[in-house]
Design goal:
By secondary structure, the chain is an alpha/beta fold. Helix content is about 35%, strand content about 15%. It has helices at about 15-20, 55-60, 75-85, 100-105, 135-145, 155-160, 185-195, 205, 215-230, 245-255, 290-295, 305-320, 330-340; strands at about 1-5, 25-30, 40-45, 65-70, 90-95, 170-175, 175, 200-205, 215, 235-240, 265. The longest helix is centred in the C-terminal third of the chain and has 14 residues, at about 305-320. The radius of gyration is 21 Å and the shape is globular.
Length: about 350
């Protein structure tokens, strides 16, 4: 098959390209050219926000399937379908678990009772569009430049899944971790262990909070599978590891990989240093089910979780994030909280 990856030179896209190439498919990557594309792929340079300007070149590649890894809004989705209607067999878009109402309740942007778990593809979606406040969006765009001011996956999903001529597939992704993770999800634990901290504090509510995660190579395998299996047409799939672990469980796994002999200390939220607290309603977990993609497409993770944690931890030890992340660390405040609770 011939597959076109829009935004395919980033964290996830590189692994998707590699997975497709390993299966013998021809791959092209459409990107802005600000970073190097994966090796052995065709390159098409252009701007996602001006997709029509590159339409002729994109169609010249004659893709069987188009995978949009960086679709940010309904307006972009509309342009995507217009450009490729009649030029490809199917479009696959990467969405997010943030479409679910449970995420809005957790963030405090939705009212009402806690949502039932696990979240399935039929779970209720957010009623309020644009899930993140402006200050969060500014931080998000520093990490992910493709995110637009009108970011919301819900209208994009509706357009892709309801085109009368061009079939779509939607993949709702979890929190993705692995080598190259721009959010450095393992860093708060890795740094504290590497710094020789003997105790690591977790606020009580956050320690128990469960969210969907996925190792980047496994997520890429799911994307490659959905893109090359026609049974995925007109279907929505959650992609995530199972079972889901709580935040403290994740920290224990990372610390174990690093052979740490210290102690995790769970404190009531009102005794936890403020820099360790997370906003929102931790009573609303995000635990999700990926049963559909496993049942319908036969998806299984190629990389076991212990190996995924080993690879990610090794990468994180060698790759510190930007200085902004240092706000998560105030060892003097943490020591004072530990002394107060002894």
């Amino acid at each position: 098959m011939r597959l076109l990856l829009i935004g395919g030179n980033g964290f996830i896209g590189r692994f998707v390209a590699a997975a497709l190439q390993a299966q013998g498919h021809a791959v092209a990557v459409f990107h802005r050219g600000t970073t190097a594309a994966p090796t052995l792929v065709d390159e098409i340079r252009g701007d996602h926000n001006q997709l029509a300007a590159s339409a002729q070149e994109l169609k010249r590649f004659a893709p069987d399937v188009v995978i949009d890894l960086v679709l940010s809004s309904g307006a972009q989705a509309d342009d995507l379908m217009k450009v490729f209607r009649g030029a490809t067999r199917r479009v696959v878009m990467l969405s997010s678990m943030d479409v679910y109402r449970a995420v809005g309740i957790s963030h405090g942007t939705e009212s009402g009772p806690l949502q039932d778990l696990p979240l399935t593809e039929e779970s209720e979606l957010r009623r309020n569009l644009h899930p993140y406040p402006p200050e969060n969006m500014r931080l998000l765009r520093k990490v992910f430049p493709w995110v637009t001011d009108d970011y919301d996956k819900i209208p994009a999903e509706r357009i892709v899944m309801n085109d009368p001529e061009l079939p779509g597939t939607v993949l709702r992704l979890p929190m993705v971790y692995g080598p190259g993770d721009p959010l450095h999800r393992f860093y708060p634990v890795v740094k504290r262990v590497a710094d020789g901290r003997r105790h690591i504090i977790f606020p009580e509510a956050l320690a128990a909070w469960h969210s969907p995660r996925g190792y980047v190579e496994n997520v890429a395998a799911a994307i490659a599978l959905a893109a090359t299996d026609d049974r995925a047409a007109q279907r929505v799939f959650n992609v995530c590891e199972e079972p889901a672990f709580g935040e403290l469980e994740w920290a224990r796994k990372i610390a174990s990989e690093m052979r740490w002999e210290g102690e995790f200390v769970v404190l009531p939220d009102n005794r936890t240093p403020p820099h360790l607290l997370k906003p929102g309603n931790a009573a609303q977990h995000w635990t999700a089910s990926s049963a559909r993609i496993r049942r319908e497409l036969g998806y299984n993770e190629p990389v076991a979780i212990d190996e995924a944690i080993r690879r990610t931890t090794a990468w994180q030890r060698e790759n510190a994030p930007a200085v902004e992340f240092l706000a998560q660390f105030d060892y003097a405040a943490e020591d004072a909280a530990l002394d107060h609770n002894r």
